[in-house]
Design brief:
Protein name: Guanylate cyclase domain-containing protein
Radius of gyration: 20 Å
CATH superfamily of the largest domain: Nucleotide cyclase, GGDEF domain
């Protein structure tokens, strides 16, 4: 076993099919769905200018997990890929019965990824899958007439989305994410059925972070008080 490979920075992309395990889906339906999902991903990555062949891909049964090298710009993953993927999924759905149609949750993050003889591991990968499973993201897709709901990490939103000239960050919505051990903030967008622009929401996370800082300070102060006893 090789434990000495250096960690590498990667853009982390994951998608998950809504209702993949629905009992109305038969094995032929799922095979058609999976074929359509990969065809949509190939087309969307190509349309977005992201070289699929240069990315590491792993099949998740009901979704796909992709790691893109650091030299591939992150902007296209959020500026072009979501819309291209939604278009490709709509195209698939027009030609298939309901049980073979696709609706997707999509998550974007980035971070240092470690490699070993069995695959990859990283806190950033864990967080990406926690984002993908977040209840607000599932609710957003469930209530949307579109086929795709996107969530980015706070890091990805602050470093990529806020500074993009190719999309409007005011159409994203901050949401709390609480899945297993993860407690964080994500940013949700509906690429094919966008939320109305609302610039006032961009300040909500700052307030939330201030509140969390205050709570950490209070907890730390309480620990010190319990340790030192009465003055």
């Amino acid at each position: 076993m090789n434990y000495e490979r250096p960690a590498m920075h990667r853009t982390i992309f994951a998608v998950d099919v809504e209702g993949y395990g629905d009992q109305r889906r038969t094995t032929p339906h799922r095979l058609a769905l999976r074929e359509g999902l990969y065809r949509a991903l190939f087309r969307a990555f190509d349309d977005a200018g992201v070289p699929w062949r240069h990315c590491r891909r792993e099949d998740c049964g009901d979704g796909v997990f992709v790691l893109a090298p650091a030299e591939i710009p992150k902007g296209p993953f959020v500026e072009y890929l979501p819309n291209a993927l939604a278009v490709a999924v709509h195209r698939h759905n027009l030609n298939h019965h309901a049980e073979a149609r696709i609706r997707l949750r999509m998550a974007l993050h980035a971070g240092e990824v470690a490699y070993d003889d069995h695959g990859v591991t990283a806190p950033a990968i864990n967080q990406t899958f926690r984002l993908l499973e977040a209840a607000p993201l599932k609710d957003a897709l469930r209530s949307s007439p579109g086929v795709l709901a996107l969530i980015t990490s706070a890091w990805f939103f602050d470093e990529v989305v806020r500074h993009s000239e190719g999309l409007d960050p005011t159409t994203f919505r901050p949401v709390p994410v609480a899945v297993k051990e993860t407690r964080t903030t994500g940013w949700i967008a509906l690429p094919d059925r966008p939320y109305p622009a609302n610039a006032s929401l961009l300040g909500d996370v700052t307030a939330l972070d201030d509140y969390r800082t205050w709570r950490r300070f209070r907890r730390h102060a309480q620990v010190l008080a319990d340790r030192d006893g009465p003055a």
